[in-house]
Design goal:
The protein is an alpha+beta fold. The chain has helices at about 20-35, 50-60; strands spanning about 5-10, 15-20, 40-45.
Length: about 70
């Protein structure tokens, strides 16, 4: 696998998986919530510099940050 785009971990059990696609990681999180009632977390990997810059400019949920 190339550099992981996301790592999903659950603080309540031993779940820890890496994913090359964010969509697959999101599916894992939702399925784990439905199956166990746990609330897993994810850590995003690095993105291309242009993608990171645009993400920083958009802020959380598309709300621009004031830098």
């Amino acid at each position: 696998m190339t550099t992981p785009r996301a790592t999903v971990r659950c603080p309540e059990c031993d779940l820890e998986e890496t994913f090359s696609k964010l969509a697959t990681a999101r599916i894992c999180i939702e399925e784990h919530r439905e199956e166990t009632g746990h609330d897993p977390e994810w850590e995003l990997g690095r993105f291309a510099p242009g993608v990171e810059k645009m993400g920083d400019q958009a802020g959380v949920c598309g709300i621009p940050t004031s830098k």
